[in-house]
């Protein structure tokens, strides 16, 4: 046998893995390429053009939906991250106390329930509140998004806290820092990367949501994903490709930042 | 006034610390009382789990005693949180703040005390000079070596001029050579600053070479407090004798006691004189300890005798393992000097001469 | 003055109180906008449907009855609701098939990543993470463009002369499954990778040393050791797959419904909120059962490994 025996090799695994990576990116590549198509077809290439990006940009519905998406995602992400940071501080680095397991379960609960069920539940619940209060604004969407963003924001913050050396805060206390000062000067600066990671995660999760938004939104409250879902159901033009491409780019940027931030150790 | 002899910086009075509740309760400290004098280099020595770190944490304020008082210059500090105690700690892991520079770390305590900027800067510069780290002031703590981190940790704890400095096994992470250097460095710092040091270690050599006084601890109790010489030459109990250095234990019966001296008869019938440990309660039987280097093996008759079982060469000295006539094991350590060496063979009959003052009677 | 021991006790009580205050915002938000409303769904499943959607506050088990059965309009007899049963069966079948398929593709992929050198491993991991965090709708849409009749696959096959008529893939169960495998593959790879990364390859060496073949090493050593990752990955894929909404809506068209589409229908044109609520509870029960299997499995593996 000419080839050396490799301990780690498994027959066919490399082939399957490479095929997976190829197939994972092929559809995305096709989608991006046709966003630059001159013709209005998404299968025949009619030359390079930016016309669909221009079309999307001048479509008032797209612009409105984008703003709405950003508004909801940033509000939900910020509120969720603050709540998650506080919750992470409350549930880490402690001896078990009564209610701790309950808190873990409760915070992670939105991850355990299928989105469709949460969507339906919120549809029913908010319908009652809408009648009772007469309020029809974006608050419902922000509240719903905040709730399902909390467990995602909680994840990296909690991980960071658990890896943090408790003796650092003890050292601060030993050096005359009151609990609040020790938190501000030692805990918080060391926790920042986790908080930023949590914020970005929450932002992306909120930005991507289709199902819960679809059920909670009132008329005229389309976010970019629900608008796109409507368009796709109606038939497709490269305009959706163009929107998707921009959306993809935004996600990739955020994920890249997140990836390097969560790898960074100090 | 600072040099008044016998003035106590720290007084620990009847302190108990239990962890857990009910059945699972464990006493980490079992009614400990000890006084630590001002300007003293005081060491808590004992194996891991003996309660030495617990005692240190109680003094620092990271834990509260279940019972008892801890007095700092006469006032009880046991109920105070750590940030209200004029006591600073050098942590085993150093616990340097990774997001601050060396200088920021050293200035942290003073900043928290609300000192003016100018005073902080001056004091930080002084501290950097004291630990010879002037050039690395702007570095991050992750960019300096272990020995340098150790110095920063020391400077940081000394900067607010604490009344007492607590050191929790600070040298354990360093390699042998650096550890030796830092031992001398620590003694120098203590001398220059005049601050009371309480040093925790499990390394008997470290304790013997550095300390003014040592407290030997085991199972949550302090067994003996004394100078290095007292602890080594006059161990009061079996644990202390066994934990520090090597020792021969011999059973004996007391013939007479006169002051601090006693005449005892060993199992072999030989009668020797021995020093009596404080607090010894005579009831006829006793254990006598003799350090291996306080005895001498000779060809011919000695105070006691036996057969050579093994001879082990150690470079600086040689250990002669002897089986005494009454069946007990005895080790003699002789220094290896050029020329004037008495060589022994396995199976040879030897006598053992005990020096004056070689034997000590244990309390237990 | 209080003793140190009393002060410690007070401090401990204060700390636990502070910890409750700190977690309160998160708990309240989740209670109001996620957990609490689930109870209302349970309540609604026992009410009577209103004529224009919503409900009438009258107790009824009709919602639950019509999950599995249908009432004949003329003689009021009950028979199995075959339309519902078809949808249940399709949902279960597709979710299970998607889970198995992601495992078949994901296992070698995770193994491949785990056996790369430290440096390149991060790059491969990053390539898996990107789709994981990009919009699910966009990824589904990307699949749609590839498998359409005018899409890349059919065009290529026709141009190569292999077929002359496009194969109808879109709006079939097959399309839904392909879509789910595509969008959920990262959910399988990541936990698998996490457990493979910890794999001690000296054990694999020991296996080869004791005359095992590659296949035997895979089956008898690697697979049992990474089983927690396999279980975690399968659960992570199965749960969103059984409740999938976007993928069947986009790739299944109107006819090939799954659970979620059926539920949506009851809140839309169907105007039968109690039935929709009962169906939601049913999906949740299936998910809870899957989670129970997971908890059992992980608890068991902890015992085995000491």
From TrEMBL, chain A:
Segments passing through the bilayer: 12-36, 72-90, 111-131, 137-157, 190-207, 242-261
Keyword Plastid found: no
SUPFAM superfamilies to which the protein is assigned, alphabetical: MetI-like (SSF161098)
GO cellular component, one term: plasma membrane
ABC transmembrane type-1 domain ranges (all copies): 66-258
CDD domains for this protein: TM_PBP2
Location within or outside the cell: Cell inner membrane; Cell membrane
Membrane topology listed for this record: Multi-pass membrane protein
UniProt keyword terms in alphabetical order: Cell inner membrane, Cell membrane, Membrane, Transmembrane, Transmembrane helix, Transport
PROSITE patterns for this protein: ABC_TM1, PROKAR_LIPOPROTEIN
Annotated signal peptide: none
Database matches in InterPro entries: Bact_Polyamine_Transport, MetI-like, MetI-like_sf
Gene3D superfamilies with a match to the protein in the record: MetI-like (1.10.3720.10)
Domain of life: Bacteria
UniProt record, GO biological process: transmembrane transport
Subcellular location, principal: membrane
Pfam families: BPD_transp_1
Keyword match Transmembrane: yes
Function: Required for the activity of the bacterial periplasmic transport system of putrescine and spermidine.
Family (UniProt): Belongs to the binding-protein-dependent transport system permease family. CysTW subfamily.
PANTHER family recorded: PUTRESCINE TRANSPORT SYSTEM PERMEASE PROTEIN POTI, SPERMIDINE_PUTRESCINE TRANSPORT SYSTEM PERMEASE PROTEIN POTC
Name of the protein this chain belongs to: Spermidine/putrescine transport system permease protein PotC
Species in which this protein is naturally found: Aminobacter aminovorans
TrEMBL record, chain B:
GO molecular-function terms, A-Z: ABC-type putrescine transporter activity; ATP binding; ATP hydrolysis activity
Class of enzymatic activity (EC top level): translocase
Ranges where the ABC transporter domain occurs: 10-244
Gene3D superfamilies assigned to the protein according to its UniProt record, in alphabetical order: 2.40.50.100, Nucleic acid-binding proteins, P-loop containing nucleotide triphosphate hydrolases
Record field: catalytic activity: ATP + H2O + polyamine-[polyamine-binding protein]Side 1 = ADP + phosphate + polyamineSide 2 + [polyamine-binding protein]Side 1
Gene Ontology, cellular component aspect: ATP-binding cassette (ABC) transporter complex
EC code: 7.6.2.11
Coiled-coil boundaries: none
NCBIfam families given in the database record: potA
Record family assignment: Belongs to the ABC transporter superfamily. Spermidine/putrescine importer (TC 3.A.1.11.1) family.
PANTHER family, A to Z: SPERMIDINE/PUTRESCINE IMPORT ATP-BINDING PROTEIN POTA, SPERMIDINE_PUTRESCINE IMPORT ATP-BINDING PROTEIN POTA
Protein name in the entry: Spermidine/putrescine import ATP-binding protein PotA
Organism expressing this protein natively: Aminobacter aminovorans
Automatic annotation (TrEMBL), chain C:
Endpoints of the signal sequence: none
Topology of the protein relative to the lipid bilayer: Multi-pass membrane protein
PROSITE patterns the record matches: ABC_TM1 (PS50928)
Primary localization class, coarse: membrane
Keywords: Cell membrane, Membrane, Transmembrane, Transmembrane helix, Transport
Regions that span the bilayer: 20-47, 94-114, 123-147, 174-194, 229-253, 273-295
Localization per record: Cell membrane
Name the UniProt record assigns to this protein: Spermidine/putrescine transport system permease protein
Originating organism: Aminobacter ciceronei
